[in-house]
Every structure is written in C-alpha cells, then in structure tokens.
Amino acid sequence: MVNHHPWRGYLCKLNNVIHTPSIITPINCCRQFSFYSSFSRETREMVSENPFSSSKRSPSPKFSNSFTNRIFSDVAGDITIVVDGDSFLLHKFPLVSRSGKIRKMVADAKDSNVSKMELENFPGGSHTFELAMKFCYSMNFEITPANLAPLRCAAEYLEMTEDYRDENLIERTEVYLNDIVLQSLEKSVEVLSTCEMLPSIAEEVGIPSRCIDAIAINACKEQLVSGLSRLDCDAESTELKSGCIEWWIEDLSVLKIDYYERVICAMCKVGVRSDSIIASLMHYAQTSLKGIGKYQIWNPSKVKQSPSMAENDQCSIMATLVSLLPAEKSSSIPLSFLFGMLRMSIMLDATIACRLELERRIAFRLEMVSLDDLLIPSVRSGDSLFDVDTVHRILVNFLQRIEEENVDCGYESDGLGSSGYGSLLKVGRLIDAYLAEIAPDPYLSLQKFIAMIEILPDYARVIDDGLYRAIDIYLKAHAILSEHESKKLCKFIDCQKLSQEASNHAAQNDRLPVQMTVRVLYFEQLRLKNAISGNSGDGFLSQRISSGVPSAVMSPRDNYASLRRENRELKLEISRMRVRLSELEKEQMYMKQGMIDKSGNGKTFLTSLSKGIGRIGIFSSPTGGRRQKSSRKYRGSEGKPGRNRRSFVS
C-alpha cells in the first residue's frame, strides 16, 4: 500500500477545478511534488510542520475573504498573510517555492511554527496579492494591461525570480510587457495610467519609462500612416479630413500631468509633428481645466481667499502645459486657445512666469487678434470690468518685437509696405477699437486709459478718428472729470489727422475743452483754404520737413536714428495726403452731384462756397469767449437750418 503525500491529493483537487483559459497554464502536480521532494530535510520539515494529516487537522477558520473560502474550504491552511487589512489563509509550501521574500520571512521567524504574517505597502493592494497567490497555486488567470503593472510590481516585491522557479511571475509579466503591451500605443497608455497608483517600485522596474518610449515611437509610426491618410483625404470631403486627426490624442488625456509631460517631451525628441502635439495639448487642457474658476467671471466678490487643493492642481497643470508649448515662433497655436489659457491663468492666479509666457506668445501675433479676444474680464474686486493691465503688457511686448525687427532688418524695413509697419497700423486700429469698448466702464481710471493711449507711437495711427471716438465715449461716461483732466486727455488727439466727418463732429462737441474745439476749427479753416488754393496740405509737409533736419554735429548713430524718424514722418505725411486727396475727390463729386440736382433751386457752387467762407469768418473773431457761445455760433452757421447733427459716438 502506497502512502501518498498529503500535497498530492490536494494538488489533484486543484487540477480538477475548472478555471477560465489564460496565457498562464497550470503546472503539473507531479512536477510540483518532485520540486517539493527536492528540498532539504529542514525545509520540508519547516513547510510540513503542521501538515494536513487527519490526526492534527483542526476545523478551518472562517474568513471573510472570498478567495480563502472558495479555494481552501477543503484543506486547512498553515499560514495567514494580512494585506491591507484582508486576511488570506494559505499554505507555506506553494508560497516559499516561488516567493523569495516569503521564504526569507518564514526562515527568519523566531518561531518555527509561525502562522501569521503581514505584508506592508504591498503594490496593488489585496486584489493584486490574490492574483499573485493564484499564480503560486498554479491557478489560471488572465494577464491584462489593467493588471500587468501591479502584478509586475508585486512579483518584484515578493522576489518571484528565476532563482526560485523557472518561468516565475517576473518572467511571465516581462514577456507580456515586451511582446504585447509595448507593441501597441493604446495598451502602453493604459499600462502607464495604472502606474500612477503604484509606489516607487514601478519606477525601479522601469515600467513607466519603457511605456513612455513605446508611446512616442508608436506615435511616430502613426504619424507616417496618418500622413498617407491625409493625402487620401485631400481629395475627399471635410468630414474625412477631420477623421485624419491622430486618434491617440484623446487617449493621452487619461494620464496624470507628470506622465503626460514626460510623454510629450519624448514625442518631441523622436520628431512627432508640432501640430499633433498642439492638438494634444489643447485636448488635455480642455479635459483637465474645465469647470475651475467659472464662478469668478464678472463676479470678483466671490473670489475665495485661499485656493483649494483642486485649484492648486489646476495651477500646476496650467504651468506644465504652457511650458510644453512648441517654441517655434511660426507654430500654429490658435489664438483662441492662448487667450483661453490666459484667462484661466488669471482666474487661477497662476505663476507670473506662466502668465508672462502666454502674454509674450500673444504679443508675437497681436495683429491677428480680434477685439473680443482682448476683452479679458478682471477678477480683482474694486477694479475695472476689464483687465487693462494685461492688455497693456501684451502691447508693450508687441512694440518691443517691432523695434527688434526694425533693428535687425535695418533702414530699408521702414517702408510703408514692410510687414512690421503694416502690423503696427493694424494694432493701432485694434487698440482704438479696444479703447472705445472699455471707455464706458465707470470704474476705469483716467491713468489707465491714458496709459493705453500714449503707449502707441504717433506713426501707429494714420487717422485719429478711432482715438477721438474712444475719448469722446470716455468723456461722456465720466462727466465728473475736471477741465484740467479733459485737457490732459484730449491733447493726444492730433487735429490734423481727423477726417472731415470727425472734424465736423468735434467742432460741435460740447464735451471737448474749449482749446480743443478751437484747434479743430483752426485746422478746418486751413484745410478749406488749402482746398480752395489747391495746395493740398503742402504747407504742413514743408513745415514738418524743415523741423526734421538733423544737426551736423550729431554722432553717426544719432544721425541715422534721426534720419529714420524723418523718413517715417515723411511717409506718414504722404499717407495722410493720400487720405486727404481721397476725401477732397469725394467732396468734389458730391458738390458736382449737388450742382446737377439742385440747379433749379438756386443751390449753386457759389452758395456752398459762401457757407465755407462764412465759417472761416468765425475763426477770425476773438477766441477768448466761452465754449457754449462758440458752439452756438458754429451751429448757427450750418448750411441747412433743420439739419440734424450726426453723432460720432456709437
């Protein structure tokens, strides 16, 4: 009669259990028994000190753990291992045969009959420990991208190396990682996301770094494939073109910011296109920065005194995303995205470096900005409705960029056709429109309003109509300004650069100081004289030219700068003369049309000319009278008695 070892019957019971198929196959029970027999006598006595003989068997303890109840209801265990508060009733032999850590713990125990151990800081928790124990008992289960990283870390923690058993858990997980996970971008992202909850042991075994490199390399491969798809999409509809965008952009949004930053840096190193990286950054920002700070818009009183933990995380995400933006100046980062990030950084009170970098990038393309983009709401209590300081800093950066380009390109870049000068004119019109939008704000201080006006150089405005309109709106909304403050504000208007319509409106505007009205009427008189004599403003031009001659004792550098300024002023005068000529041609056309339409009613050219001469007579009278009296005289000299005055303020 053959005396069977107790393990033999137990392993046969395990092999009779039906399990789900997987890549991990059960180990033959005879192989298990022979391995057990190869142990030294001391080891066999250690693991079979309290074997499963019927004479010493005690009733199985009841544990709440389902794994213990399901597997070990027939055979009593001889060791209890506690992981994260969960108890596992197990057997020493299958554990010490594969785990070097448990073998050392059993061997080093003072009591040879140790029956309880606790594993602290186990990677992946009790669920991962259960899978590791199934592997020790040769039970089938499936390795997936979701449990690979915890299993690999658990195998490292338990020291399940080839020194204790062939094809141990470390080897099995490494094979799956190299052959399955790292060959797929999607699976690499999934495994990398699971590493975020694991301790530092994940970095020690190198799972994150290998997944990050695999993501970057696979993204490069996808880039080549998508390049061919884009060629096919060029001949198709817009819907197909939108489908050619890289699909992995959405997958990366599940990563935490630390891993995401490492992935983007790796992609930049291997040569992934900048537009794909920008699209990924935009999607990640929309996913991770939504819903924070919305309550602060247009309600500064609700700003919290201390930021919450979530907002601190948002600030970190914001700073990281800004640092990841491509450094190329010609990058196609949408301005709407930059302004959205800037608004969010203001609401979250992000770092100064983060905000200044966004402002610098916006200033580089300020001529392409729309008016709505500049209307950034202010979140500080007691301040104006709009964040004027931010726009002012953006404008300073823009002017510095224009000056640097002029210095780099040299003297020839000052032409009217140069891109720098064209950009400056566009920004001048944009800022005038911005001033008109913020002027009605009752909380906007005069100092901030003047600072926005005077920062632009004189040659940034060919015509001052937009500036006059903004100042007029500000005077209307801030009626409490003193006469001195009104004069200080109106001195920035160049009456020579006002159009005919703006000059007519300014001459009848009671909100302007008397000196401003007199200047407007004076230049209107000179303009009319030049129109009659056919001079077309050459007197102004010769006067400016005579005042701009450089001194012979100037240094060559100062002389060059003076010549540049003179050249710029001459070209501006030419532009103004062209505008004046266009206005005179329009007036001449209207006058000819009026002569044809009204020849039967006595409305002749001489009548219109007499009205103009009568207007000139007003300017020859003393100008020391009150503004109201002068305004009434000007309104009384209008051509049509019942004519309604057109308002220049929208």
TrEMBL record:
Keywords, comma-separated and alphabetical: Coiled coil, Ubl conjugation pathway
GO biological process: protein ubiquitination
Domain NPH3 as annotated: residue spans: 246-527
Coiled-coil segments: 560-587
Pfam families referenced in this protein's UniProt entry, alphabetically: BTB, NPH3
Coiled coil in keyword set: yes
Keyword Coiled coil assigned: yes
Domain BTB: from-to ranges: 77-145
Taxonomy, superkingdom: Eukaryota
Location of the region described as Disordered in the Swiss-Prot/TrEMBL record: 618-650
Pathway assignment: Protein modification; protein ubiquitination
Family per similarity comment: Belongs to the NPH3 family.
The protein's name in its UniProt record: NPH3 domain-containing protein
Organism: Manihot esculenta
